[in-house]
Write a structure and sequence with these properties.
This protein is mainly alpha-helical and about 425 residues long. Helices cover about 70% and strands about 5% of the residues. It is globular.
């Protein structure tokens, strides 16, 4: 049985690599073939230079993603059949006997795997930030800020992640056959806790948040919230320009921690009417309960995955088939690592389904924005954001259907124009 599972996992790995590279190359060829001219629907609003920069940015990101895929695949093979995970197991098992028992060993093993993965990914992350993003004028991150962010992220991971990991491993050891149900409850509680504390204590550690100043934008936002019956929410501007010139806006938190955050780059780039329309789109997600539905879906999937892990925990073929030996059957920490490594290989084919559902939600949010604000202003804002963020207007259709969480620009703008008053187009 272990030989069969090894073959299945290897086939899944190779299939993932082949499919992802094929889709990436399709995207590269399609974007390059349409680089010479912007689509007719955008020709009067997007300059040729901006269109070509977006194409070049897309091609550069695709190339780097293929390199990342190669590194990711090598790490998977090295950890499993290459023996690296087995070596880490032996290392920690020999040194932590009597020093925390299985719990200390499990925390050390999983933390070392995560640290190893982060160190291996670091060169690509540095290149992405300081070469690729800088090449296209998006990077505003300094090396000092990059290092400070990494140290803060590491500290937050330790403060939040280590207690969670210890609780999970302890529950796996003491709660019997249905440990996965208790772990799931703890996991849900942890995520809800993070949603509450993130805007209050974590996010301000990384960025400066200032109340939205009085003026037309604030007046429009408050009026929009009243029209949508969303009540009063705290409004903040975040100094996103410290790290990047990309613009964005988002909702975060729940209860008394609910707030709306605008990047300063967005405030500086869009008109008040366009900012209102972008916010109306975000309100559309709340109106249709997209956030709650996604959270419910994530919690349901996590329960299914934990139940599956419960079945695999004592399956010798699962451990032996992934290169850590039959003697480790029942090892909770090893099972968690192996499960985290192998599940993405089989879950990858569900990507188009989740992309489709996300695009459907975006169309619904756009339609809601058109009802309580302005379809033409939202379309105009999106055109500016496509240009500012160097988002390609000509993605490969199959690549877009497989990956993209948002509809392609042409489809989205056409949909908004169909919702606008007759004869009105985006400026």
């Amino acid at each position: 049985m272990s030989e069969i599972f090894t073959a299945v996992a290897l086939i899944a790995l190779l299939s993932n690599i082949i499919l992802r590279v094929w889709l990436s190359l399709r995207q590269t060829r399609f974007v390059a073939a349409h680089r010479h001219a912007a689509p007719a629907a955008f020709a009067e609003r997007i300059s040729l230079a901006a269109h070509q920069q977006a194409a070049d940015y897309t091609l550069a990101k695709a190339k780097l993603e293929r390199v990342g895929l190669f590194v990711e695949s090598l790490l998977f093979v090295a950890l499993t059949w290459g023996g690296a995970l087995a070596a880490l197991h032996d290392f920690w098992a020999q040194r932590l006997v009597g020093l925390g028992g299985n719990l200390g060993y499990g925390i050390a093993l999983i933390a070392s795997v995560l640290l190893l993965s982060g160190v291996i990914d670091l060169p690509l992350e540095i290149y992405r930030q300081f070469r690729l993003e800088a090449r296209f004028g998006f990077n505003r991150m300094t090396p000092a800020l990059f290092i400070a962010d990494k140290l803060k992220q590491f500290l937050v991971s330790c403060l939040l992640g280590l207690p969670l990991l210890a609780a999970v491993l302890w529950l796996m050891q003491v709660m019997g056959a249905y440990w996965w149900l208790y772990v799931w409850l703890v996991w849900m509680g942890f995520n809800l806790l993070v949603l509450f504390i993130y805007p209050l204590w974590i996010a301000p550690w990384f960025n400066k948040f200032t109340p939205l100043a009085d003026g037309e934008v604030k007046t429009r936002v408050h009026a929009l919230l009243q029209r949508g019956a969303f009540g009063n929410r705290e409004l903040f501007v975040m100094d996103g320009s410290r790290r990047s010139s990309h613009g964005n806006a988002y909702f975060t938190g729940f209860g008394k921690a609910r707030r709306i955050v605008f990047f300063d780059t967005l405030i500086n780039r869009l008109t008040p009417a366009q900012i209102e329309a972008v916010l109306a789109h975000e309100l559309g997600h709340f109106h249709h309960r997209h956030i709650i539905k996604r959270m419910a879906g994530i919690f349901a999937l996590s329960l299914a995955f934990l139940a599956l892990l419960g079945a695999l925990l004592h399956a010798p073929w699962f451990f032996q088939g992934l290169g850590v030996g039959i003697d480790n059957t029942g090892n909770t920490a090893l099972a968690l690592v192996l499960f985290g490594l192998v599940i993405p290989l089989f879950a990858f084919l569900t990507t188009p389904l989740f992309s489709f559902l996300s695009r459907r939600d975006e169309f619904q949010a756009d339609a809601y924005a058109a009802r309580i604000s302005s379809a033409e202003e939202l379309a105009a804002a999106l055109v500016k954001l496509y240009e500012d963020n160097a988002a390609t207007l000509t993605p490969d259709p199959l690549h877009s259907r497989f990956y993209d969480s948002h509809p392609p620009a042409a489809e989205r703008i056409a949909h908004l124009q169909s919702l606008a008053p007759s004869g009105v187009t985006a400026a």
